[in-house]
Design brief:
Blueprint lengths: L7 E7 L3 E8 L4 E8 L51 E5 L9 E9 L32 E9 L4 E10 L4 E10 L5 E13 L4 E9 L2 E9 L3 E7 L11 E6 L9 E7 L4 E7 L5 E7 L6 E3 L4 E3 L2 E7 L2 H16 L13 E3 L1 H4 L5 H14 L3 E4 L21 H4 L3 H9 L4 E6 L3 E2 L4 H5 L19 E2 L5 H16 L5 E4 L18 H22 L4 E4 L9 H4 L4 E3 L6 H11 L8 E6 L12 H8 L3 E5 L7 H23 L1 E4 L9 E7 L5 E8 L10 E2 L9 E4 L5 E3 H6 L2 E2 L9 E8 L1
Helix pairs in contact: 7-8, 10-11
């Protein structure tokens, strides 16, 4: 039974299949009680109270040692209230003192979904017309917002916790707003977007690590006693750790078991923490990295954390992925290209690198147009003095001498081939050997009296300063206004260090870096406003800024600079856990592959690249006649299947860490009327046994026609026994089967 002294008021949020509940004690402590399958009632009796040695008690409860915030689950733990676990919030006052005691002040329900000034946030297409204060039995067809206000009496700090509830999606988003309501300057030393405390359970943590050209590798590890943390201080969300995490029951699989997802909509420095405490309780948190974060907050100012999107399902990893795929496709991605098929493009980078002329570009475009490719993208090297990566960045004027014509003329010639035209840009960077840097050296991050660390021969422009971002935007806009252009690839090719803002006076790293990210977001927002029909693809040396925050501005992101089809199987497999196929930029590249030296036939390269926004990155004129015929077929197939690929349910049918015989994945329409099976052989053996791929997500009662073979199999049989990988010789053969329900 609940201790009579600790009776609580309750705040309960419901989605279609889940319940989230917190409790407010008589002393104003906001406790987290439950997040899981749909439940009714007041759940304070789940808590246990005992005298815990070395776990302190609030002053007003000092005579009853059974109440300790060091042992109880909290909704937004803060440093200074007796909880010695990792806090979500930590603040320093102007005299250097750390320590707050946040207490509940009020809460209210608001129709519709909150927004965050200057930052990405999931949105609802429909807004509910009314919202009742009592949520326990309320039903909503669109999103609504809960706002909970906490205050600290000593510092006059106010923290508003915002919850966006998407009932039909089974998604709850969270962020926090910190307001300095006092008269003195304070420094926010740590302010995470969310915290989840679990009273019980043994969990695995699934995270996605990597490096440049090998991003988002799946790794599943136990949550151990102590704190495990992952994150980035590179200025972008990074190739090394992705801001999407899964907390899974130890027994959970692709098809069943408790799974909690956490996705941070932020493209800068971040940290995720998982902690198993002394009483075997688990805490997970995510937000802006607190390393060197010391955000100065003047009286009256507010600080908004980025948004975190939470989801829970008892149906395993596939079901969790489907929740995030729907959320991102329909409630994070925006604009003209949100739900449209993206043009099949060819990019000249791996065909020419910097060494091209306008004549070569037109030759590649002409060959591509003859095969049915729909857009040509001119990559790095079209501007300034840019014949390698040592000069020209920042000088956004067209190198007409190199092109042998104006960019407008080149664009018109390509449009005359019935193709669209796109450009590569890298607005956040500058070379020392550039007109811009010589004129404005103070616009780059360079610490006085220290030689800067270089990356790809370039420095980072201070996008925390509006006049810097404004100038770059105006220069690039001059180019875009003068030509017909339908696509931009916006790149970022180095990590950020030597952070110094020349106009800041006192240097506050946390504030500068956060304002830098806001400057990038503002730059992208202005591109959207001025060029609403341009498709923007995000890029950061490939997948170094592949996060849900960037997808708010760019509906697809270049998945990785590693274009080797076999390597991409693993990269795209990891990416699929938190991100939809429509967000993945993937191309057929030349062989031997630049990154690995591997040669794979063009059919296999295409099957892999079709698990994304499809395109080519090679000199198409160098293909053999048979390969060109394959390209024509691939383009027709992709157009035929794109809706199924981009909007269907995605199922992972293999585990790259274990399954060495074959890789396989499946797209199934929401109504289960059709599916597209993709298989690629990996290892090959003499006299090998048959390998069967079991399908998922089909209608068990229906029969399916397998491609054009005339073979018909029942959905139950396909999911129980599967389809055999054809016997073959040689590695890396690919097969693609379209299944139609009869």
């Amino acid at each position: 039974m609940e201790h009579k002294k600790f009776q609580m008021d309750y705040i309960t949020l419901h989605t279609k299949h889940t319940t989230y509940q917190m409790g407010i004690t008589e002393s104003g402590f906001l406790l987290h009680l439950y997040y899981g399958p749909k439940a009714q009632g007041e759940l304070g009796s789940l808590l246990t109270f005992a005298d815990r040695g070395y776990s302190g008690n609030p002053y007003e409860l000092r005579d009853d040692r059974t109440f300790s915030l060091d042992a109880l689950p909290q909704e937004y733990p803060n440093y200074g209230n007796g909880d010695f676990r990792s806090p979500a919030f930590r603040l320093r006052d102007d005299s250097g003192v750390f320590g707050t005691d946040l207490r509940y002040e009020s809460h209210r329900m608001i129709p519709g979904k909150y927004r965050i000034p200057g930052m990405p946030a999931a949105y609802a297409e429909e807004e509910s017309g009314s919202c009742l204060k009592e949520t326990r039995n309320s039903k909503y067809t669109a999103a609504y917002t809960l706002e909970v206000t906490l205050t600290d009496a000593r510092t006059d700090i106010e923290v508003r916790l915002l919850y966006g509830v998407f009932p039909e999606l089974d998604v709850i988003t969270r962020c926090a707003v910190v307001k300095n309501a006092g008269n003195s300057t304070v420094f926010v030393n740590k302010a995470y977007s969310m915290c989840l405390d679990f009273l019980t359970g043994t969990y695995d943590l699934i995270h996605f690590h990597g490096r440049h050209a090998m991003e988002r590798n799946f790794e599943r590890i136990p949550v151990i006693s102590g704190t495990q943390s992952f994150g980035s201080i590179r200025g972008a969300s990074s190739h090394q750790h992705n801001p999407f995490f899964i907390l899974a029951d130890r027994e959970a699989t692709e098809d069943f078991g408790d799974c909690y997802g956490v996705s941070l909509l932020y493209s800068g420095n971040f940290k995720f923490e998982a902690e198993r405490d002394q009483y075997c309780q688990t805490r997970v948190q995510i937000g802006i990295s607190d390393e060197m974060f010391d955000y100065r907050l003047e009286p009256g100012e507010e600080f908004h954390t980025p948004e975190a999107a939470l989801a829970y399902t008892p149906k395993g990893l596939s079901a969790l992925s489907h929740i995030y795929h729907r959320l991102i496709r329909n409630h994070i991605c925006r604009g003209f290209w949100k739900n449209r098929r993206r043009p099949i493009l060819i990019n000249n980078w791996e065909a020419t690198y910097f060494n091209f002329t306008g004549k070569q570009i037109l030759s590649i475009a002409r060959e591509a147009a003859n095969l049915g490719i729909e857009m040509f993208v001119l990559d790095d090297g079209w501007f300034g003095k840019r014949d390698d990566d040592s000069s020209g960045l920042g000088d956004w004027h067209v190198n007409e001498k190199k092109l042998g014509r104006s960019l407008a003329e080149l664009s018109e010639e390509i449009h005359g081939m019935d193709m669209l035209f796109g450009l590569w840009i890298e607005p956040e960077m500058v070379n020392e050997d550039s007109e811009l840097y010589k004129k404005h050296p103070d616009w780059a991050f360079v610490i006085p009296n220290k030689k800067p660390v270089m990356g790809r021969n370039q420095l980072v422009l201070d996008f925390s300063r509006k006049e810097v971002a404004d100038f770059i935007f105006q220069e690039i806009a001059k180019v875009l206004d003068s030509i017909r252009v339908e696509y931009l690839k916006m790149d970022m090719n180095r990590s950020i260090c030597d952070v110094y803002s020349a106009l800041s006076g006192y240097q506050n790293y946390g504030k500068i870096m956060h304002n830098y990210v806001l400057g990038v977001y503002d730059f992208l927002e202005r591109l959207h406003a001025r060029y609403p029909r341009i498709l923007i693809e995000g890029c950061c040396g490939g997948g170094g800024r592949f996060d849900a925050g960037m997808l708010y501005y760019t509906p697809q992101i270049w998945c990785s600079d590693d274009t080797d089809a076999i390597e991409r199987i693993k990269i795209q497999h990891g990416t699929s856990f938190g991100y939809p196929i429509s967000a993945v930029g993937s191309h057929v590249s030349a062989v031997p592959n630049e990154q690995t030296g591997r040669t794979v036939d063009i059919g296999t390269r295409a099957v892999c690249a079709m698990a994304g926004s499809f395109g080519y990155e090679l000199d198409i004129g160098k293909l053999q006649a048979e390969e060109k015929a394959f390209v024509k077929e691939q383009i027709l197939d992709y157009k035929k299947y794109w809706n199924l690929i981009h909007n269907g349910l995605y199922y992972r049918l293999h585990n790259p860490a274990k399954d060495r015989e074959a890789a396989a994945w499946l797209f199934v329409s929401e109504d289960k009327s059709e599916a597209l099976l993709n298989m690629i052989s990996l290892d090959t053996h003499a006299n090998a046994p048959a390998v069967y791929i079991r399908l998922k997500g089909l209608d068990a009662e229906k029969n399916y026609l397998i491609g054009d073979s005339g073979n018909v199999l029942n959905g139950n049989v396909l999911m129980h026994t599967g389809i055999a990988v054809p016997f073959h010789s040689g590695e890396y053969r690919a097969w693609q089967y379209h299944l139609r329900a009869l």
